[in-house]
């Protein structure tokens, strides 16, 4: 944030607003779709000016913690892929198991790179996202927070080529066919196990243990792939 021409009190307000918005996100005090309160609501809640709130959101957006859409509001995480048309083109020829094969090729290495580069603050954000995923009470919310967690790991990896490949795979997995089968693999027992797997991934990233992060992500995705395969076989046997 450039503070050269900003009054000292305004700068302090912006910094405080930024920290308070971070606290809101970490506490899960936002809507199920990840949308933050409006700028006006944030101003009233924090007792700061609209300018301070906008500067705070600018800083959080630059960090990759939130994204904004004109006329829609501010959301936790990162915006959808602007090149999503490519995902839409290949999605009809792609099934959920193909998506899992692609994820297994990409995400373990992204987790290893995240272990190399993530800061303590990054790890705290990952833990907050994992907590929201575990606490989600419906399939849409679970998918939202789970996707945010995996997207953040991809961003923390710091490799733009791998991240672009991940983004394409992530867009494909948001297609309805994937969503339908994914929801069937979300029994309470499986959700609890996925939460434990997320915890092991984050612990390895926190420990800066690249090999452990790689293996923990691979184990997580392998488990999901096996559950999807079981669901498919069960459906085919009917």
UniProtKB/TrEMBL annotation:
Which Pfam families does this UniProt record tie to the protein? FCD, GntR
Where does the record place the HTH gntR-type domain?
11-79
Its signal peptide is none
- What does the record give under GO molecular function? DNA binding; DNA-binding transcription factor activity
User: Is RNA-binding one of the keywords?
Assistant: no
Q: Which InterPro entries match?
A: GntR_C, TF_FadR/GntR_C, Tscrpt_reg_HTH_GntR, WH-like_DNA-bd_sf, WH_DNA-bd_sf
UniProt keyword Glycosyltransferase present: no
Sorted alphabetically, the keyword list is: DNA-binding, Transcription, Transcription regulation
Which protein are we looking at? Answer: FadR family transcriptional regulator
Species of the source: Roseicyclus persicicus
């Amino acid at each position: 944030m450039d503070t050269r021409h900003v009054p000292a009190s305004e700068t302090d307000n912006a910094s405080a607003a930024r920290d308070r918005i971070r606290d809101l996100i970490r506490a899960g005090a936002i809507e199920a779709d990840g949308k933050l309160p409006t700028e006006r609501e944030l101003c009233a809640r924090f007792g700061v000016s609209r300018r301070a709130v906008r500067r705070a959101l600018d800083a959080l957006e630059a960090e990759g913690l939130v994204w904004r859409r004109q006329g829609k509001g501010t959301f936790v995480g990162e915006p959808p892929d602007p090149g999503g048309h490519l995902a839409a083109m290949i999605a009809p020829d792609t099934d959920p198991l193909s998506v899992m094969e692609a994820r297994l090729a990409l995400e373990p290495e992204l987790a290893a790179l995240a272990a190399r580069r993530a800061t303590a603050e990054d790890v705290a954000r990952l833990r907050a996202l994992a907590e929201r995923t575990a606490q989600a009470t419906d399939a849409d919310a679970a998918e939202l927070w789970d996707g945010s967690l995996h997207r953040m790991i991809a961003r923390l990896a710091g490799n733009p080529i791998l991240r672009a490949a991940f983004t394409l795979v992530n867009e494909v997995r948001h297609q309805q066919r994937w969503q339908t089968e994914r929801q069937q693999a979300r029994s309470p027992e499986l959700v609890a196990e996925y939460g434990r797997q997320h915890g092991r991934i984050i612990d390895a990233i926190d420990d800066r243990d690249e090999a452990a992060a790689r293996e923990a992500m691979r184990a997580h995705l392998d488990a999901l792939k096996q559950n999807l395969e079981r669901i498919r076989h069960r459906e085919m046997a009917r």
